[in-house]
Design a protein that fits this description.
Elements (H helix, E strand, L loop, with lengths): L1 H10 L1 E3 L3 E3 L1 H5 L4 H15 L6 E5 L3 H12 L3 E4 L11 E8 L4 E8 L8 E9 L3 H13 L2 E11 L4 H6 L5 E11 L2 E4 L1
Parallel strand pairs: 3-4, 3-7, 7-8, 8-9
Antiparallel strand pairs: 1-2, 5-6, 9-10
The protein binds guanosine-5',3'-tetraphosphate and sodium ion (2 copies).
One sodium ion binds next to strand 7.
Length: 189
Amino acid sequence: MELLKKKILEVGRVEGDGILKVDSFLNHQLDVELLNEIGKEFYRLFKDYNITKILTAEVSGIAIAAITAQYFKVPVVFAKKTQSKNLDKDTYEGEVYSYTKDITYKIRVSKRYLDKKDNILIVDDFLANGQALLGLKQIIDSANCNLKGVGIVIEKGFQKGGKLIRDKGINVKSLAIIEEMKDGNIIFK
Ligand code: G4P
Ligand code: NA
Ligand code: NA
């Protein structure tokens, strides 16, 4: 997606440890007009899959999922990372291993909001190691619903998540794939 790549080149900052900071439009401040174009693009890519629900994980996925859902006219469900009092007791759980923190944490979705007839589109901001996606897939599998596709805003093609997820036969579409980040320069695939 050219508009997105242009934005990444304009305002993205490469941190020393292979992290791309895009706080000014995606992870802190939100560029709603750009998110709108991202939502349209996900709709164009997945409109023929009879999507009935969009699934993501809190926090950064929610804005993208909500804007995308307006085009599909379906609800968004986001997996929660903390076991709050407000969350139903009866949940589907997924495990997410965080490489950065070297811990495994649980994400949860109430059983009320996933039905075995649901056709799910997952959306997320980044695909790096793919662990968040694996956790969401666990939830989808436990609920016995159908994973139709995954829409990612920025894939870090030099990390192993993309291959890991595609090798499972999952239909992943990333709007920008970064091949390499070297000396502060971003090179797209
Ligand atoms: P992964 O296996 O799910 O791909 O993620 P990983 O543990 O490698 O990364 C941990 C968190 O950092 C994830 O967010 C992921 O989206 C995010 N991330 C990974 N690489 C980058 C990057 O280069 N730039 C930015 N801005 N983020 C990156 P999270 O903690 O699960 O979620 P959230 O609360 O931010 O939504
Ligand atoms: Na995320
Ligand atoms: Na994130």
